[in-house]
Amino acid sequence: MPDNAENGTVESLSLCDELIIMLLNEQSGYFYQVPGWELNCTFAGAVLAELSLLSRIDTDMTSLLVVDRTETGNPILDPMLRRIMDEPVQRNARYWIECFATEAEPIIDMTLDRLVGMGILEHHDGEFWTLVPNYRHANPARDSEKGGGTASKFIKTRIREAIFTDTIPDSRDIIIVCLVNTCDVFRFIYELDDKAEERIRLICQMDLISRSITDAVEHKIASPMLRRSHLARQLPSVSLSRLPFNRNFRQGNVPALFSDLAKEYGPVFRIKLPFAKPIIFLAGPQTNFWVHRRGRRHLRARDYFSDLEQMYGACGVLPSLDGAEHFRLRKAISPAYSRSRLEVQLDRFYHYAYQFMSEWKVGAAYPATPLSRRMINAQLSPLSISVETQDIIDDLILFKERALTTHVAKILPKFMLWTPKMKRKARVIDTLMKRVQSVHTPAQRAGCPRNLADDWLSLHSSDPLLVPESNLRFAISTSLLASYYLGDAFSFVLYAMASQPEILERIQVEADALFDGGNPESGDYSPTATDVTRRFIMECLRMYPIVPVSLRDVMNSCEVEGYEIPYGSRVFIAQTAAHYMEDVFPDPYRFDIDRYLPSRAEHRSPGYAPYGLGTHTCLGTRWLDLQLAINVLIVARYFVIRVSPRNYKLRFHPIPSMKPSRKLKILIAEQRHELPG
Fold first, then answer.
1. Which of the 8 DSSP states describes residue 431?
2. Cβ neighbours of residue 541 under 8 Å, at least 6 residues apart?
3. How does residue 19 score in pLDDT terms, banded at 50, 70 and 90?
């Protein structure tokens, strides 16, 4: 919270600020959905109305005039004021609303950033927003009159009085009423009767700029004209027969493959498949930004995931939900995936890590992917669900991989999931559930650190509609599959350490400084103390992302980078294609941890997306980052590792997610220190 909020001082809100606050649905963490042209006209009108309130412009029925050329100091308003001043021909308000509507998205983004900076909004991972409850709105006199409280309460109280009483609203409230009415969301905020709706119509006629906004929205002169040329553009098509000639396709490097295709065909293209509909792909930083900020209006996860959740006997699990229900469940379960949950269990974490590594033999070479998955599971399983699962984790992973290839990727026919072998593997889910239920009784959990299974079971107990019993098998069994994804990420990390001795030596320096006095506390893993390790992991996640592509279905037609994508289409979001784009990461095939130094900060863009985009961004990123970092440091502290065979060239096994090829082994070349008992 900024000092101005802590000290009780306040800062004035603009019309754009107040409009954003009115449009936020505080129960869902989403903004009320408003069609693009209407929303853009509304924000363009808010800019003009703010300039009018600041006495920079004036308007009548036929023209809009600049009456004061002094800039306001507001980075949103001043560029628009200069545009009006530079126009050689005098225009009316509607002209400028339609003109600025095409540039409204940056206005919205800057307003969101401003509200976060003021401590009014809080931005959460996954593109959710909430209001900070104890921020006080500017203008204490009016605040006192209207009842005070949060910025949202203050604004909505003012507008409620304007609509439901006969008081004459001031000019600012007249404009806010018109702006919100243009977005057609009053029906979600207040219970309106005929009298209130008539009152709203009357208020909207009191201001000329407000009437111009309404005219621009109702007639939509500019919108069809701007979109018609785009609709004529055909999506570039990639012939399937061309892919085998691509080097990255042959190596299984999925993000680099889509980077190549985007470079040749553009950020939106389709790949033709035999006997099936073409697949649409989005690839590049611009499409990443669109998905992250705008995708929730147009894309949903439910359709592609429904087969998989039904296979577990579940319905409405977290990965398949969208909208308010997704936000509600994500918010409820997020503490279980937080970094703090791992930090309070570091002593146990070290014990499980040392116990697993005690079996490593100097001179032995271990298959990289199974080694990494089992090491991660040896830590995750007891910490997250309080049971040991090393004897069944391989079967759980094999069943999940087959489920993904049959029900999501659809590479194999569905009957391949129900062969006699796979039926035997599926039974381990019941084994897992029995183990979890046997130790999660109140007496046995008394005094124990709260874990993921505790959270799922208590959510089911307190809200069985949100987390029904039918969803627990999926929720608890798939939570262990972090061993699968994080384990595969760790296998790439081990490869990068083993194949680059000079980087391993730099990590060893950090590890020795941290561990020389014993096991570090959570606060010891500061950005300064783990600088090389942190940047090393970030580069591994860039070059070797585990989930390079996300699937979504289009529920509302949308336009992306000038191409219209109709509803009902399936879209593959290649969010990591930008990891191999020269204009985002120069020399992208070079492993370079200095990319993340403050002087370069190449990851500070929508092009860096190792954990996904938008509302379905990975929930446990901070836990995973810490667990990866500690494991890297522990390995570097106690062992020297090398790639085996010595002449191994990295190739990828990309289905159903990215991992090194099976030929990669990790050689334990030397033990540097004795493992703690």
1. H
2. 489, 610, 611
3. very high
Closest by CA position to 660, among listed 373, 356, 364: 373
Of 528, 515, 523, 488, residue with least CA distance to 658: 488
Do the beta carbons of residue 362 and residue 672 sit within 8 Å?
Answer: no
**Amino acid identity at 233:** R
Tell me the domains of the chain and their CATH numbers: 3-225 (1.10.3630.10), 289-315+345-385+480-671 (1.10.630.10)
Is 51 in contact with 59 (CB distance < 8 Å)?
no
Strands 570-574 and 279-283 come out as parallel
| Calpha distance 515→521 (Å, rounded) | 10
For residue 75, whether the previous peptide bond is cis, meaning omega lies within 30 degrees of 0, is no
The pLDDT-based confidence of 206 (bands split at 50, 70, 90) is confident
Amino acid in the structure at residue 454: D
Does residue 637 carry a pLDDT above 90?
Answer: yes
Q: How much is the pLDDT for 218?
A: 61
Residue 83 has pLDDT above 80, yes or no: yes
With beta carbons less than 8 A apart as the criterion, state whether 474 and 309 touch: yes
Task: Report which residue type is found at 577.
Answer: A
Strand extents, DSSP E, 462-600: 550-554, 558-560, 563-565, 570-574
Which residue, among 507, 501, 544, has the nearest Cα to 646 in the 3D structure?
Answer: 501
- Does an H or E element contain 115, and which? helix 104-117
Mean of the pLDDT values across residues 591-601?
A: 96
Instruction: List strand residue ranges (DSSP E) for 71-173, in order.
Output: 121-124, 128-131
| Whole-number Å distance between alpha carbons of 604 and 613 | 14
380, exposed or middle or buried, with CB in 10 Å at 0-12, 13-18, 19+?
buried
Q: Residue with structure tokens 């309130």? A: 53
Q: Which of 69, 63, 67 is nearest to 90 (CA)?
A: 63
Measured in degrees and rounded to the nearest 5, phi and psi for residue 7 equal: -85, -5
Q: How far apart are the first and last CA of the chain?
A: 44
Pairing of strands 365-367, 558-560: unpaired
Contact 619, 125 (CB under 8 A): yes
What's the pLDDT tens digit per position in 41-65? 889 989 999 999 999 998 887 888 9
- The pLDDT of residue 7: 40
| Amino acid letter, residue 250 | R
